[in-house]
## 1
Amino acid sequence: QTVERSAILRDLEIRDVRDRTRKVAPLVPADDAYVIDSSDKTAAQVAVDVRELCRATGLA
């Protein structure tokens, strides 16, 4: 079975909107969440960022 890329992207967007807007446990970051963009980082770089964040916020 062949599925077009556009159909997959559409389905993902529909799912994401549904998940973000549901009343119970919406899939959104908490108001006080820290967000680390790991898009262009290795796991080791993300770990360093997490350690630095913990130290900076007094969690370590």
Note: The two ends are 51 Å apart (CA to CA).
## 2
Amino acid sequence: MLNAPGTVDAGYRGEILINLINHDPVQPAKISRGDRIAQLVVQRVERADFLLVDELPDSSRGVGGHGSTGGHAGLVEQVVKADLVDERLSQ
């Protein structure tokens, strides 16, 4: 049984529903009154004011993407280089 997370906007006024998916093709899922099948997390939402700039200041991370701060940067670089090679070969 999979419950799919969702977000309820602050302006929503309807009943809060839960999406459940039974991935077992053989066994039907049985849910009884009182079963704990979901949880609600209430979280404050920050409203950001964005400032348009021509250029961002330098940072220690730079342009490092996914995994660049967790010790997997070499692997990420290899994947990016492989993608570039594939792109050049397909042209």
Note: The longest strand covers residues 2-4.
## 3
Amino acid sequence: MSYRRSIPVVSALSLEESLRYWTSVMGFHQCFSYGDPPVYAGVERDGVEIYLTHDPNLVTSMKEAGSHPEVFLWVSDVRHSYEEHRARGATVVEALTDRPWGARQYVLEDPNGYFIKVAEPIVPED
């Protein structure tokens, strides 16, 4: 037996709004949805999948507590991603910068209060 992949599940106050965010702002495409109206859905970009679930009670509790769960995305060109997300209207919480742990990253906030960290490794110059 071996593990093959991990897919984060993001809780949503409004699944429709979250789908719009992940497709229009983050550039993912919708893979599936379940229910009528939808209560569960999946989005994908470049082999990276995120599942979304309608859970207004959890999102409300997170917001009341000031909690910001995180989704971390590694990309191959973080500067390009940063400009793309800004142009698409993303809420930038932390601008693109080099971090002491060897990552160049920025942080976005989705409509449900999740922090989306987007990064690439910093390659040391020879």
Note: The chain has three helices and eight strands.
